[in-house]
């Protein structure tokens, strides 16, 4: 069942890849001093910009324009760095993933994106009080996720921790060969705890109650309108698109002996 869901989710992620920015067009635009405006047609209104509750194509397309997770898929559907600097180091039993993070990743409010932002986001996903739509992604995958979602274990027992400010450690219930590819999915993007909790119920209700760690910022979105804008996020630091294909396979990164 989990593998079936992964195929569906990966298909959505590949669809989202086509909605990202094109590096060639970016270069051409940067070679001129004239401002460029790109008109885009979306498949529908944005139902939600809250990565905990969004689970539809329209929301995911918008979220991936303004947010960034550990990894991205490029135009060839290959893993490239996001907030992570390289592919995970995986233990021999396939259960423990260690992921180093960039030190130059920032939110649009000038705070750094750190390992704690991913820990908080994932805890929110499985916390039964948050009502997260995509909790099933981590159930029976990440250690203690199912028990936490059932209210049997505290959220801080989830199998993800900040080893340091710039290193994550994730522990699984059992080996999942496609787990690294799952990390491209918007549901698993980081959340800034201080900002989210300060906004309370207003968080992600409109573009004024969001912060961003992606290439763009959302503007002119009131929560239900049919038009909105993307503006450059001046606090986003581009990363060289390193291709991981020579390091490890996209899916079969764990081969049990």
UniProtKB/TrEMBL annotation:
Subcellular location: Cell envelope
MF term (GO), any: peptide transmembrane transporter activity
Domain Solute-binding protein family residues, every copy: 78-237
Keyword Transport listed: yes
GO process terms (BP): peptide transport
Superkingdom, taxonomy of origin: Bacteria
Gene3D superfamilies: Dipeptide-binding Protein, Domain 1, Periplasmic binding protein-like II
GO cellular component: cell envelope
Keywords attached to this entry: Peptide transport, Protein transport, Signal, Transport
Major location category of this protein: other
Family: Belongs to the bacterial solute-binding protein 5 family.
Protein name, entry field: Solute-binding protein family 5 domain-containing protein
């Amino acid at each position: 069942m989990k593998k079936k869901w992964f195929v569906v989710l990966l298909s959505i992620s590949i669809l989202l890849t086509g909605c990202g920015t094109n590096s060639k067009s970016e270069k051409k635009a940067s070679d001129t001093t004239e401002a460029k405006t790109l008109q885009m047609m979306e498949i529908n209104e944005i139902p939600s910009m809250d990565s905990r509750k969004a689970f539809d194509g329209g929301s995911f397309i918008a979220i991936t324009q303004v947010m960034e997770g550990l990894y991205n898929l490029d135009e060839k559907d290959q893993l490239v760095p996001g907030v992570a600097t390289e592919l995970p180091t995986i233990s021999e039993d396939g259960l423990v993933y260690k992921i180093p993070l960039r030190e130059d990743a920032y939110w649009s409010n000038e705070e750094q994106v750190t390992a704690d932002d991913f820990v908080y986001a994932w805890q929110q996903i499985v916390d039964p009080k948050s009502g997260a739509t995509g909790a099933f992604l981590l159930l029976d995958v990440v250690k203690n996720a199912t028990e936490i979602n059932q209210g049997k274990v505290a959220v801080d027992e989830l199998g993800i921790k900040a080893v340091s400010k710039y290193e994550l450690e994730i522990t699984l219930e059992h080996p999942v060969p496609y787990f690294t590819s799952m990390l491209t999915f918007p549901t698993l993007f980081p959340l800034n705890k201080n900002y989210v909790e300060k906004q309370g119920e207003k968080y992600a209700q409109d573009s004024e109650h969001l912060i961003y760690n992606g290439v763009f910022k959302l503007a002119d979105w009131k929560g239900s309108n049919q038009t909105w804008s993307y503006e450059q996020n001046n606090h986003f630091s581009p990363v060289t698109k390193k291709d991981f294909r020579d390091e490890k396979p996209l899916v079969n990164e764990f081969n049990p002996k």
